[in-house]
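Researcher: Here's my situation. A collaborator sent me these components and asked whether they could plausibly form a single complex. I don't have experimental data yet, so a predicted model of the whole assembly would be a useful starting point for our discussion.
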Amino acid sequence: MTPVFGELQVLPLAVFGVVLALTLGITFWASKRTSSASDFFAAGRGISGFQNGWAVAGDYMSASSFLGFAGLIFLFGVDAFVGLMAAIVAFLPVLLFLAERMRNAGKYTFADVLAFRLRERPARMVAALGTLAVAIVYLVAQMVGGGVLIQALTGISFTPAVIGVGIFMLAYVIFGGMLATTWVQIIKASLLMSAGVVITIFVLAEVSFNPLELFKQASANSEAGDGYLAPGLQFTSDLGLLSFALAFLLGTAGLPHILIRFFTVPDARAARGSVGWAVFLIGSFYLMIMIIGVGARAILGPEGEKAAGTSGNLAIPVLTETLGGGDGSTGGELFLAVVSAVALATILAVVAGLVISASGAVAHDLWSNVVRKGRDSEHEEVWVAKIAALGVGVLAIGIAVVGGSGFNVSALVGLAFCVASSANFPALMLALFWPRFNTTGAVVGVLGGLAASLVLIILSPAVWPGPDTEGSPLGSLGLDNPAIFSIPIGFFCCWLGTMLGSEKGNERGYHELNVRSETGLGAEAASGH
Amino acid sequence: MAMSEQGPQDRVGEIDWSAIERSPEFQELVRSRRAFIFPAAIFSLGFFGVYLLLAAFADDFMGSQIVEGLPVAWLLAMLQVFMTWGVTAAYLRKSDRVFEPLERRAAALAEKAVEQSDATGHDHRDSEVAGK
């Protein structure tokens, strides 16, 4: 993709510089306060519910929800909002089933919850596998998407952009641990919310603050006419629509970087409170994205489609430039620079969250509890986590650079959510709520869910060579996002494994997990910084 | 007394979990919470499911406009956000008022159990839970 805004952009780079300097300052501050394993993985459990709500929002809202979904709404109307609807409703399973139970029964990773009642080593191994699969695939998707975006916005070419993002991400995690990662997310979320509010006000000002007028102009400015206001532009297949929604809906509750956020607060009350704040912030932001996306359609019209790119990713940058006074005007350039910086902060915060979740899976689950069987020191665990972060980061940077901008980002995101919803989510839910569940069930379930996701994504029209649905060997059942098949397969494998497993469930372990997760008895205490 | 300030938290290895699980206090906590979370989850997923079904099968209805510039599909889309806020607020309220006091009551039992085991000179190490 060539930079649509021409040569190197000085103003965006200057604003980038300010954001980067701020985050490095925070990392330095955080590094002075990070020594123990609980500091590194869980920010000493001293983050308040309000702060964690902002951080969850920062972790969750990727550049794709800011630029991607607004662009898709610009192109396809209400169909594109389905992804955001699913993404916000998805916090209800997190709130009702997981947030408090994670905080009550877990320490650093969601595998802790499984390890309570299942045989520890196999349970941790499969949970770490599920975590790493989601984190690495999602990381590569974010890196590639981020690289393409930075190239388009600033003129820095793809490879240096990806490597630069990777270096900052690793600096936050390795030197500042969870405390730095959390504050980078809080800053990013505040920047994102502020940008959302400002652009929304500017868009609404164009229609004298009458939203009805906005929709009228949007349909008048669409080749689909009133069809722009109805479903059916993006999803031609009903099954595709359902499956896409389901992946977000249940995948969110299996995203390791979201689940570990609940370990950073002092207690279950703060954990559920943080979901409350997150839901408020993310919901407000999505409503603003809706207005901005429809506004882009109303203001830019069909002529804007070329500038916005085929995926619509640049609709917001083009829109803000127009709102600021147009191409070449000072206001337009300033707006564009700020939006670019917000997009950069967004990418950095999400990748940092993913890396720290992957490092926890390697250091806490695989190294400390599987290889060293708990005999390692806390100091060693933190060092292994830092090395793991470096390894995972370098691996993801490498894949992103080698694969380049040719990677199909939406297929990668689809795969990450598929694995989260089909491998991690079933095992976690059944461990908490099904007394009969056993280790064989967890192992077969996670591996089965993972394999089903992988196979179905490879056979999907997005990956299998061919121009459209006919490209998939599954015909019309080949979906870009096959969660509707892979989630039931994941649950079925959990059940099948449980029935086949000869071991009786660890009765005592279930009683303990049940009481602990419901009451918070024996929960990890805050370290009191 | 410094010890009791730390509560049962530091001494969980000594707790008889299945006894707490069988206690009426714990049963009431689990029953009342599950009576909320399962219906709430089914309601919210169903509410969203209705949108998806309408989007898939009721094109005319979804494409219609209540007044000009207020299309049904967009209105129902916004409702999903409001529904999420509503269910979240209801759960948080219910947690503060009902579930948390029940949690404390069930947890207090464990504290009592630890004190009793202290009195009988029970050997704590034996019941340390493996893997923690």
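Model: Some features of this prediction you could bring to your collaborator: Chain B has five helices and no strands. Helices of chain B lie at 2-6, 17-22, 24-57, 59-63, 72-119.
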